[in-house]
Predict the structure.
Amino acid sequence: MTDKLKIGIIGSGGIARGHARAYKNLEHVEVVAVADIVPGRAESFIKAQGLDGARAFTDHRELLEFGVDAVSICTPNVAHHETSIDALNAGVHVLVEKPMAVTLEQAIDMVRTAKRTGRLLSVGFQPRYDPNMQMIKEIVRSGQLGTVYYVETGGGRRRGMPGGTFIRKDLAGAGAMADIGCYSLDMALNALGYPKPLSVSASTYNYFGTSPKYHPEADRFEVEDFGVALVRLEGGITLLFKISWAMHMDSLGATMFLGTDAGLKVTPAGSGPWSGVWDGGVGSITLYHDLFGQHTETPIPVKRHQIDIFAEKVYDFVRAVQEGGPAPIPGDEILYNQAIIDGVLRSAESGREVEIEIPEI
Ligand SMILES: NC(=O)c1ccc[n+]([C@@H]2O[C@H](COP(=O)([O-])OP(=O)(O)OC[C@H]3O[C@@H](n4cnc5c(N)ncnc54)[C@H](O)[C@@H]3O)[C@@H](O)[C@H]2O)c1
């Protein structure tokens, strides 16, 4: 018997490597098992990541029977639901990669099961550990902006379309909206305190994904590569949300929060150090945040290598498991994120605004 926290990793592809590395850094924590449905893949992963002594399985249920305290679920989106439900029902805490699930129904089921079993369900949004994002949240929640009534967010890749499971509707759920849109939604909603979404009116497109000129798997491309949505949130807040995997433009613009006392503009993530333009009262000043969240009016380049946000999300999950919760990025919050993506798809398909209904859990 070991007194270490026993970890299992389900799905041993790209993102699982970051989870394994983070767990390895922690004392009193050991990755004891890895499951991947492709025979031989878990074994290779264990070897490549130096997870000495870990057991390999091809079925996550065998991993759960073997016995672990917590799992990282790093499968493609389509398997997040089944593996999370099985883990929670086996009394195991879950850190599931983003997006939470493929459908809203699956996400509801996952949250219900976590509640019933009393196990933690946390979703892997590592940008939450970026001090810049924490600063945005602090500014918005501090009330310095006054009443926030409008938020615009989104992200745009110019040429950044994935393939494989990411472009199949039944396997991924949605395209750019779910894959990278869930991050923008999380940044905005987390800063606002995750208000409930009420309705959404959206349009989606896939001109680039379905064109052999732009995508090698054009004949199999079933999801959206661009989407825009107007979302009504509880508290009279309007959210404009737009995302692209491909477009003839460099950016879809900044994230901005408009309040009755001040506004906050954040440069698009990935375009260099984040900066915030703060425009309140007379004139405006530009704030830059260093890695430790210090305000300064002098630009300080963000040294991202100083903080490994991928590892931080794993450390925080482990801490929560060890201390008995709560989940750092709780499934019942991220349910709202999934509900918006679900609403986007329904609205785009019907060509009209749709209500978002989230049952009490
Ligand atoms: N947080 C992030 O920054 C980030 C980055 C990339 C991917 N992701 C998310 O992580 C997930 C995995 O993405 P990836 O790029 O690592 O994919 P990947 O294809 O590289 O790896 C997925 C692995 O899961 C295995 N698998 C599939 N179904 C399984 C099942 N039922 N049980 C066990 N193993 C199974 C596959 O064989 C594969 O080895 C996706 O949901 C993706 O959205 C998150």
